Amino acid sequence: MTHFIAQPKQGVPFVSVQTMAQLINKLGIENVLQQLTKRLETDFTRWQQFDKSPRYAAHSPEGVIELMPVSDGELFSCKYVNGHPKNTFRELQTVAAFGILADVDSGYPIMISEMCLLTALRTAATSALVAKYLAPKNATTLTLIGNGAQSEFQALAFKSVLGITDIRLYDIDPSASQKAFNNLTAYGLNVTICNSAEEAVKGAHIITTCTADKTNATILTSEMIPQGVHINAIGGDCPGKTELDAKLLERAAVFVEYEPQTRIEGEIQQMRADFAVTEFHQVINGQACGRESQQQLTIFDGVGFASEDFTALAFIRDQLIATGQYSLLDLITQQADPRNLFSVLTAEHTQQESVA
Description:
The chain is of the alpha/beta class. It folds into two domains: 12-117 and 308-339, ornithine cyclodeaminase, domain 1 (2-Layer Sandwich); 136-304, NAD(P)-binding Rossmann-like Domain (Rossmann fold, 3-Layer(aba) Sandwich). Helix content is 35%, strand content 23%. The protein contains eleven helices and 17 strands. It has helices at residues 17-27, 29-45, 116-134, 151-162, 174-184, 197-200, 246-251, 259-265, 280-284, 306-323, 342-355; strands at 12-15, 56-60, 63-71, 75-83, 97-103, 109-114, 141-145, 166-170, 190-193, 206-209, 216-220, 230-233, 242-244, 253-256, 278-279, 298-301, 327-329. The strands form three sheets. Strands 9-8-7-10-12-16-14-15 form an eight-stranded parallel sheet. It has a seven-stranded mixed sheet with strand order 2-3-4-5-6-1-17. A two-stranded parallel sheet has the order 11-13. Helix 3 crosses helix 4. The chain is globular and about 70 Å long. It is an enzyme of class 4 (lyase).
């Protein structure tokens, strides 16, 4: 892993939405998803090196604002992210995010980045990585229930990492499914729009649930799901928000990222405190079994964890080192005497007088 510190006199590297989009298009989104999945897999193998904690969350009736910090001892990252489902009706993003990567030794920020696109990428890559270990072999069909901002990223991650060929779409808003259909047909996928969740899950090997409403909903009932399916449940991501029938969880082997956080925010918030789950890093590191048979029902109760953001930021940082494709922010003061912070104000005043 390349390690560098931004030179304060040059400013702090900044990755705008435009820069992120240009970089992804230059590398190719499927290539990015494949590479990011591999980086996530590597970082999950060194799970114990990360200083971890549940994210800080400020909840309100309309949504949540969260801070997600983590460090591996050399680098520190933190993401600011919100979740406000009703923002769609205000023509705003339901999720707005940005992240910072910093050098632990000096405490200096070494990159600031948009994280709306990057969060969608890392969420999709994490979903595909987990499915690599938990989904039935030779899976070809993915159902996406909830066809909002995440849906295309999810579909392309499963295509590029697992070889998924068929996508089944359902959303309570038909225009969302049509949007996803229009975006995905250019990628060589067989895409079908369904009229109900019951119709959408028929014949699916993998089911992703990613709905927006902040409510204890039942998107999938136990009766709808046969044995042998893998469910990628990523929509339940805050207290009071679930998507799965509790009976469905009781039938399945359930896997999570970081149990203390998932107990608060995931599908398992509706289960008793001693309900058994397995942290996914244990599967990658050979400490626990993943899918034990083709007939087993598996569920990934994914709420998103800070180490995934860390991996995504470090991955983008490395791509930008190779291309130099970023602007610089004048974010950190750099005066001749580090102790004389006041001189920055004096210098600015003097400069303004000289210009006048």
